[in-house]
From TrEMBL:
Keywords: Bacterial microcompartment. Residues 1-112, 113-215 form the BMC circularly permuted domain. It comes from candidate division CSSED10-310 bacterium. Pfam families: BMC. This is Ethanolamine utilization microcompartment protein EutL. It is found in: Bacterial microcompartment.
Amino acid sequence: MSVLDPIRSKVLAVRLISAINRDFAEKLDLKAEHNSLGLLTCDNDDACYVSIDEATKKAQVDVVYAQSFYAGSAFPSGPLSGEIIAMLAGPSPGEVQAGLEAAIDYIENEAIWFSANPDNTLIFFPHLIPRTGNYLSAMAEIEPGDPLSYLVAPPLEGTYAIDAALKAAQVKLVKYFAPPTETNFTGALLTGSQSACKAACDAFQNAVIDVSEQPIMFR
């Protein structure tokens, strides 16, 4: 094990409801065109959030529900609960299936966390999204297709690193997740050009590793 080891997330359970009961659909605030529903749980919430955004770019689906569970995957309600449940709705089973497949592929291969210390106990997420989908663009109040730095780390490390990221590139802070979040991290969404967002991710990474290597340093 070493610094910057990749930490991959795992999909725990997936189901497709081909024709959602309309009374239930009303309770879920689904639109009239939302006939099918996909359900997904994952052991990492932020990996899932960026992945369901990817699903909106690959299929005719909307993220109709996504919520982290309190205390994170270390204290799940069941073996398949993980850290989050997400729901994708679409007009047909085929569209929702395509959305689920896109989300699963992104979780497993793209939404990668990294270790900031040799024993992999301090992990962080310096994730660049070159082009946002409908879900994250709405959350960040930016245009679909705009770049985004999706940055997450433990509370002190993350707070210090967000400031470093903002100073390192011409990016704008559009969303701040104050500590503690449901899973006891902190994070931010930054937008700008793709190159600026990449520079912000790099600065965030370097700052998190700096705190990990020298936890007490203020003079």
